[in-house]
Amino acid sequence: MPSLETVQWVLLTVVLPIITVATVLLSVAVVSRLHRADARWGDVARSRLVMGVPWGSLIVIALVWCVYLFVQDGITAFDDPVTIPYRAYSYFYPLGMLTASFSHAGPNHILGNLAAAVVVAPIAEYAWGHYPDERGAESSDSWRTDPWFRALLLFPLVVVAITIITSLFALGPVIGFSGVVFAFAAFALVHYPIVTIVGVLGVQGVLLTLYRALRNPIGIYVAESSPPSAPSWAGIAIQGHALGFFIGLVLGIALLRRRGHRPDALRIWIAILIFGFAQGLWQIYWFGGGNVFYLFQGPGVLIVTVLALVVTVAITATERPLVPERISRRFTRVRGPPSESAVARPLELARNSDDRSETSTDATALTAPLERISELAATPNSRDSSRLSSIGQRQAAFTLVLVVLAVLAGMAIPVNFFVLDDANVSSDAAVEIEDYTIQYAEDVEYELVSPVRVGPLSDAVALDASGVIVTSEERQLWAEVVPARQLEFSSEESIAVGGPGWRETVHVERIGWEPVGNDSVYQVEIWAEGDDPQLAHESNGSRADVRIDDQNVTMSSVDGEFTLEVESIETGEVETTTVPESNESTTAGGLAFEREDDTIYAAADGTRIAIANEE
């Protein structure tokens, strides 16, 4: 007979998820029968999609999953995929450039991106359509307009091309599909603004909540401290998101113009503004020294607001002149008085004569030649006025959108031409695996950033790195993969390096003591899987903020051993001993040192006091 624990496990992990899924499906069925619409949901989907299915979106999502499982080796360790070789470090590292936007940093990363893709990609594919014009027999006459070709090949190929473009023109060593998700969202917003914004703000959260509830019906959470970390927005590839968004905008606007559609301006403006704020496109930031981050939220909000208006004009405005004719004429008068041509006065007399003509047919016959002569004889100022008034509102706004896209892409080009001249880092020890070098170092210059002194950013000049650093000249790779403060909190970390078809794990461990009232004294060891640990770093000594029997106690790390130095304040004499093992004791300088669990005590003349605690 099964135990009570087994029955509970089956109920929670099998029965409850089945009931939840059945309830959701039943709800959809009931609501679909109650909802009185002009057309059934299936008919609406089939009107633009083959069999009503977004085949292209499914293929792209499956491709991203395959990269995570089989290229990044997520199938072996789902929570710990290989990420280091699949970032866009440099144009001189093609593998990273081609795979970065298909790869992900972990399970939460890929689930978040694909949940968003499940929402916005089908909307974008529906807007594009498997049937290029009206559904009918003629739609399959050309292979370019064949619905199955557009669904199974053309749409996925376009998405793959956009994915690679977001890698090539993203700023820094990015990883993730989010740039393409933003492109999907922008393309969908242009065509179906309200549906898209509801999907992004609501449906995506519903999908993630359902997944987490099905995967872990009852969660147990314990309040605990967390390591010092950068703000959440400091880990977002904001330039990559904006780049993808504007790529989607340009493609969406181009398709609208080709089809001659002009959507509602208010809906477009509201949707783009809400999306920009909700998805953090205003989070413009930069790095400073000493774990300082600059968030330009005021300028960011202003930029998003202005661009929402510009994009709305580019989508919905007419081709009325950007500069009215009246203002254009005033502008030309400011530039200088018009210089009349030699035929100006005769032409004016001829027009007046036509106006007094009794025969309208004769007047009409003479008007066209006179206007042509007037145009040919126009002065430069009048021609400038004509050019100014010929620039349409929609054309000007769309040109500005293209300029923003060019700026977003162009700023990444100099950075992505990065070449790593010297991968060596000052370190006592390093692990070498194939072309990788894994080492621990502190206060070394961050090789991938060369900021410029500008106003309030004058402190953000020399960015230093401390922690586990992975380098590879072959891959143009220099990365701080585990910050020193994170290792201080966790004590041990594992780093996966590798490439297509292989992976190796390197372990790093920090052991240390914290003298009372002062900084920690620690050692860092590093080793590859299956090898012996080797000492990679030793910190400086630190004195306990206590005095016993007129003596100071300093803890140090020497050649892999922790030592206690006892210094007499009166004579300056120093005696040294090693830190005793657990529940053992030792003496130095007349002081007795006892180690009880994670604490070291010093005793003399009946006085006993704690001097250090293990990290």
Key features of this structure:
single chain, 8-stranded antiparallel β-sheet, 4-stranded antiparallel β-sheet, alpha+beta, 45% helix, 615 residues
Structure, described:
- It is a single chain.
- The protein has 615 residues and is of the alpha+beta class.
- It has three domains: 10-219 and 233-316, no CATH class; 420-538, no CATH class; 542-614, no CATH class.
- The protein contains 18 helices and 18 strands.
- Strands 7, 8, 9, 10, 15, 16, 17 and 18 form an eight-stranded antiparallel sheet that branches. A four-stranded antiparallel sheet has the order 3-4-5-6. The chain has a four-stranded antiparallel sheet with strand order 11-12-13-14, with no helix packed on it.
- 30% of the residues are buried.
- The model is unreliable at 358-364 and 450-461 (pLDDT under 50).
- One of its GO terms (biological process) is proteolysis.
- It is found in: Membrane.
- Residues 97-257 form the Peptidase S54 rhomboid domain.
- Residues 334-364 are annotated as: Disordered.
- Keywords: Hydrolase, Membrane, Protease, Transmembrane, Transmembrane helix.
Envelope shape: elongated
Round the mean pLDDT to the nearest integer and report it. Answer: 84
Q: Beta-strand percentage?
A: 15-25%
Low-confidence runs of at least 5 consecutive residues: 358-364, 450-461
Rg, rounded, reads: 34 Å
Secondary structure class reads alpha+beta
Largest sheet: 8 strands, antiparallel
Q: Gap between N and C termini, in Å?
A: 47 Å
Proportion in helices: 40-55%
Number of domains: 3
Strands, total number: 18
Number of helices: 18
